[in-house]
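Hi support team,

I'm opening this ticket because the web form for multi-chain structure prediction keeps timing out on my end. I have pasted the exact lines I submitted so you can reproduce it. The total is 310 residues across two entries, so I didn't expect it to be a heavy job. Is there a limit I'm missing, or should I split the entries? Thanks in advance, R.K.
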Amino acid sequence: MELGKTSILGLLEDVDFFKGFLDVEIEDLMEAAEWSRAATGERIITEGELDLYMYVLVQGSVKVVFNDKVVAVLQTGDTFGEFGLMGGRRTAHVVASSDCLLVRFNAEHLNLLPLPLQIKLLKKILFTLFARLQKVNRRVWWEMPTQWR
Amino acid sequence: MPQQKGKFSADILDLLINIPLFDSLVADELAVVVKSMNVVDAPKGETVFKEGERGDFVCFVADGILEVWKRSETGEPVVLSTLSKGRSMGEMSILDNFPRSATVRARTKATLVTLSRANFDDILEKNPRIGIKILKGLARLLSLNLRKTSSRLADYMLPVT
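Hello R.K., no limit was hit. The queue was backed up. Here is the completed structure from your submission:
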């Protein structure tokens, strides 16, 4: 998919994940990125598979399905599949719940970025993961009966 | 807590080799990390972390048993888990001064190995490739935790109809 530089920056402006990056850093990141689309109902990640991608949802929403249960609904600006980037096998399906525009990063492409940018990106991923973990922990702590925790 | 800086380097190295966070580091790289760490003794009963307080170091258990305490809905403190050799706590503190999510107390006399945010920043600056490996290790650790917790939550939830 071909997008002009201005329209890319415009699209990413509202995406939380890219906040805090300079325009020149976004340009470097986009060199390493791939754009893709997913239609409503399309499966983006399949449980059990092994791939080295993480995804940023630029437009649309997706659901994370684990053991036939929707464990999370993600919206524009959210990321998913970070564990794939670290070489982990997929343990859930991710399905488009509306038409989606996605940016995905491959681990090997990211390794070619300037080191300070790799560090900045990894920190951003860690903050995102940590916020998600805290949210899940809070739910476990406040919603589940003690014997389930 | 009394610190024994510079001592026990070989012991720390032995400890780090078995910690998942440092999985992808080779011996030379581990040696760099060891130099940035401190060894701290915690007497029995000592509070290492206090829930809600902001921290600026990650902690690895080298010896002894620690208890993780958290306040329940009723405000009553309960023991969530115990930590023994090789376990870590407060990992995210090497990135930012997040509040501690639980209170950690030494159940027995314990020896802890710590890495401060300032020292980790120094690693990132002077040895970025090592720093990147640690950040990736941390991302793996968080992903695994997230996965474990989410699946417990999924087991508890009703199937989607």
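A quick check on our side: Chain A has a mean pLDDT of 88. Let us know if the file doesn't open in your viewer.
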